[in-house]
């Protein structure tokens, strides 16, 4: 991708978490610096590829469950990342064609590919906002959000593999609480979060790779991830390892390979 026109104005001097994630998923939208960092992670944690795939699979299942079983027709997906089909709106609109989805990310590379995120059904709507989860009010005040989402009706807040990039110093629980506060009863939080619970030594090394690359991370325990769902009604099976949250087939990966806590909660 280094010679692609889309690379203009993109910082390729250091790796970026979204581009590294693209590498883990087998995508092509990354650079040599991202490949090197991602392969360094994989050298200490070979399960990273499984983790990334299971994160995507959880997002697909959670979206379908919310659409089919809980009447959700609107999604706010923050930390969208580089588009990988099927995107969230494609999954939602395959169940309910009228679904509306707002994507938000602060990575300029995602903006380059935002057109992929706009290919909605004629019945539904999608849009993309360049915004940072650390500034939730600016995101919520964006006119593009108001044009697509009705905050008077239930919205699913989708935070997949995002909050471990928000350290405690950045008030992650306060951020999620502020986002949920503006959503009405019947709204939902779907969240996935990497964890060191199953192999602390390995995840300490993964933390070092990201930190050395200029991306602070804080991988959290199950108890810490549960705090994001305070005040919500957790859907069965509660906060579970990603491949064990309502799997479509019998899981084959180990918990340590996946190392991802996932959950969906409904706002009463």
UniProtKB/TrEMBL annotation:
GO terms for biological process: methylation. The keyword Methyltransferase applies. It comes from Streptomyces sp. R39. Keywords: Methyltransferase, Transferase. Pfam families: Methyltransf_19. This is SAM-dependent methyltransferase. Signal peptide: none annotated. InterPro entries: SAM-dependent_MTases_sf (IPR029063), SAM_dep_MeTrfase_SAV2177_type (IPR006764). Gene3D superfamilies: Vaccinia Virus protein VP39. One of its GO terms (molecular function) is methyltransferase activity.
């Amino acid at each position: 991708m280094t010679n692609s026109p889309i690379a203009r104005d993109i910082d390729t001097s250091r790796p970026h978490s979204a581009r590294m994630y693209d590498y883990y998923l087998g995508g092509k939208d990354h650079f040599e610096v991202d490949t090197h960092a991602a392969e360094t992670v994989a050298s200490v944690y070979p399960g990273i590829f499984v983790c990334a795939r299971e994160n995507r699979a959880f997002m697909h299942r959670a979206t379908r469950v919310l659409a089919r079983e809980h009447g959700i027709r609107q999604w706010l997906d923050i930390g969208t990342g580089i588009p990988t089909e099927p995107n969230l709106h494609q999954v939602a609109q395959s169940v309910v064609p009228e679904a509306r989805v707002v994507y938000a990310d602060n990575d300029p590379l995602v903006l380059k590919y935002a057109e992929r995120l706009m290919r909605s059904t004629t019945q539904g709507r999608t849009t993309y906002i360049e915004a940072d989860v650390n500034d939730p009010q600016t995101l919520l005040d964006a006119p593009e959000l108001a044009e697509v989402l009705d905050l008077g009706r239930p919205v699913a807040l989708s935070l997949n593999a995002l909050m471990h990039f928000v350290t405690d110093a950045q008030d992650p629980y306060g951020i999620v609480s502020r986002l949920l506060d503006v959503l009405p009863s019947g709204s939902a939080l779907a969240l996935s979060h990497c964890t060191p619970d199953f192999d602390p030594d390995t995840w300490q090394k993964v933390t070092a790779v990201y930190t050395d690359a200029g991306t602070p991370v804080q991988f959290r325990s199950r108890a810490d991830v549960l705090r994001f769902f305070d005040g919500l009604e957790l859907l069965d099976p509660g906060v579970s390892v990603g491949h064990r949250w309502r799997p479509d087939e019998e899981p084959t990966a180990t918990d340590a390979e996946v190392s991802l806590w996932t959950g969906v909660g409904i706002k009463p």
